[in-house]
From TrEMBL, chain A:
GO terms for cellular component: plasma membrane. The keyword Endoplasmic reticulum does not apply. The keyword Kinase does not apply. This is Cytochrome c oxidase subunit 1. NCBIfam families: CtaD_CoxA (TIGR02891). The chain crosses the membrane at residues 26-47, 67-92, 104-127, 154-180, 192-218, 238-263, 275-296, 308-333, 345-367, 379-405, 417-439, 459-480, 555-573, 585-606. Cytochrome c oxidase is the component of the respiratory chain that catalyzes the reduction of oxygen to water. Subunits 1-3 form the functional core of the enzyme complex. CO I is the catalytic subunit of the enzyme. Electrons originating in cytochrome c are transferred via the copper A center of subunit 2 and heme A of subunit 1 to the bimetallic center formed by heme A3 and copper B. It is a multi-pass membrane protein. Its EC number is 7.1.1.9. It comes from the Bacteria.
From TrEMBL, chain B:
It is found in: Cell membrane. One of its GO terms (cellular component) is plasma membrane. Belongs to the cytochrome c oxidase bacterial subunit 4 family. This is Cytochrome C oxidase subunit IV. Keywords: Cell membrane, Membrane, Transmembrane, Transmembrane helix. Its main location: membrane. It is a multi-pass membrane protein. The keyword Membrane applies. The chain crosses the membrane at residues 25-44, 50-71, 83-105. It comes from the Bacteria. GO terms for biological process: aerobic electron transport chain; electron transport coupled proton transport. The lineage of its organism: Bacteria, Bacillati, Bacillota, Bacilli, Bacillales. The keyword Flavoprotein does not apply. Pfam families: COX4_pro (PF03626).
Amino acid sequence: MAHAHSVKRYKGLMDWLTTVDHKKIAILYLLSGGLFFAIGGFEAILIRLQLIKPMNDMLEAQTFNELITMHGTTMIFLGVMPIVFALMNAIIPLQIGARDVAFPFLNSLGFWTFLFGGILLNLSWVMGGAPDAGWTSYTPLSSTMYSPSHGVDFYTVGLQIAGLGTLIGGLNFLATIITMRAPGMSYMRMPMFTWASFVTSAMILFAFPAITVGLVLLTFDRVLGANFFNVDGGGNPVLWQHIFWIFGHPEVYILILPAFGIISEVIPTFARKRLFGYSSMVFATILIAFLGFMVWAHHMFTTGLGPVANALFSISTMLIAVPTGIKIFNWLFTMWGGQVKFNTANLFAVGFIPTFTMGGVTGVMLASAPADFQFHDTYFVVAHFHYVIVGGMVFGLLSGLHYWWPKMFGRVLNETLGKWTFWTFAIGFHMTFFVQHFLGLMGMQRRVFTYLPNQGFDTMNLVSTVGAFLMGVGIIFFTINIIKSFMQPKGCANDPWEDGRTLEWTIPSPPPEYNFKQIPLVRGLDAYWKEKAAGNTEMTPAEPIGPIHMPSPTIIPFVMSVGIFIAGLGLMFSGEEFSSSFMSFIFNNWIVCGLGLLITFGSMLMRSLFDDHGWHIEPEEFEEEGYKHG
Amino acid sequence: MTVDEQNKHQLVNQRHRHEGPQKHIVAFIFSIVLTLIAFAAVGAGGVNPAFTIIILLVMAVLQVFVQMGYWMHLKDKGHMIPIIFMLGGFFVAGTAIITALSWMWW
């Protein structure tokens, strides 16, 4: 006997602020990730405009430093990570046959802390200067001696808050995948995207504490006058490099593994074949994650670790090429003999393979310590990591977005516009970054705001800038495609690609609030494909129809994040001399910071004191309970 | 309590069969004894400090096993995933701390 709890239904903006539905949180992640991606892209265009010709004076050196710092930080932490989280949120519960994530409240909290961290970081543009010490923020450059403005404080506090959201999200996906798989879905029957997200979440769990500690130490150094990275006080600036890269290298695999997962879904679907070497794919993913934690010092070859350490880290880095190679060949063998359909999603997936491989090859070149002394801090490195992050990650994301758009929004994206997106973006990408390999080998340093004429850099920089604009055009095509798709009514089929293999294609697009009317029974890898092969049109249910328990919407995560945001601002400006004595009083006496923490801990208290049992959707409501947007 | 909840309760009881308090009492006494030895080792004084530190570390490691195994239930069935993740965490953190520190202050 289920008892019906009444639940307050919100409408409009309040609905979005209070939602705990993983599908709506996915859309929130996508929107805010897209916004930050656009900001980061705009910064990239400005950087390339400054470098279009030698001795250009369009931007000042200081502004240029702020732009490169914010471009890197925004793109990695606020651009692609949230879009990854958007896809993970939207798809994982559907792929494992679950009705939501394990902790819907935490899911919402993770999103709001990420958003407020991102907003705090970007507020730096209008509050006295953006961070300018590079996305790596190496000490002593990022210390108060060399970065006296509040720029780096925005970096440390903003990333700390955003990182909180990422850590919460990662834990949530781990718990979801471990505990909420449908009956019959063993670990070795999980779709590859779910596997990749699982391993990614584990990496987040292990890697993010390192950056949390690092950012706390740097904040202490800058705001409270500690000496962790200050040589005069007995500290060690190399410690920051270690902490940053112990986090930072796993972070780049956190970025790329979900893309591997997406590619492993898209390629089999459009080749109409099962993924070649599924178990070796799983094994390779885990191995990449494991090795990813053993290679951080390859970013530090030139800091003087000595030949033994450099040799060891060269070898461990080159080892990563082995599992990655396994994956590349598995994708190629999946396509071999398949009936390959080249629509936009698959074009991005197929385009990913050679592009990412090129990035991998330069990665092995950089892994060789003696050669790295030449490559270090040149445009060769810039070319390398843009090949793996844009050519890998962003291609993967665009593929995944085209592939799952119908599932998320109930509308198929236009193929003609999609192909325009792919070709402009892909050609623009190679124009921008291919020449940068040679610029680097010829000696052009990264992070320089201008260069002298007649060193052989002029033409290639021009080509690079033109390419950057072409990539921008590609993204504009994608945006037009999105807007166009929203002008048509919803109502694409459950399985718009007709060759869907996994559980998400068995339910309506977009799915109802409760996802599955009955949790399906999984009878093998590629569960839906298996049922199709057996002549069934739908999954066998694993439970009778009954009332469905749902979590209640709540505003608490939003309020908690506002509290953390206020506390962060209060901490940053605690030592500031304001022109108004009132402002000085409330900031210097930690009143603002305390108020923020009070809001956060007060919200936690509310959450603990008032139990929320959720509510039920009764079977009679199933038919009229459509999932509505906005 | 509704019939539904009663059924659920029974199900939970079947899954986590209660094994009586004896083992927990033994574990509790063992934890206390370990702590007492540690205190005694420091309190006794006079011994080589290096020796005291070794005793403390051994006691600490044993304590971790008791705490994890008995109170965090890691010795029970169905805890493979937490064990894998904890070992993974120890391994990653251990490698990072040992290598980074040994390079910086060799």
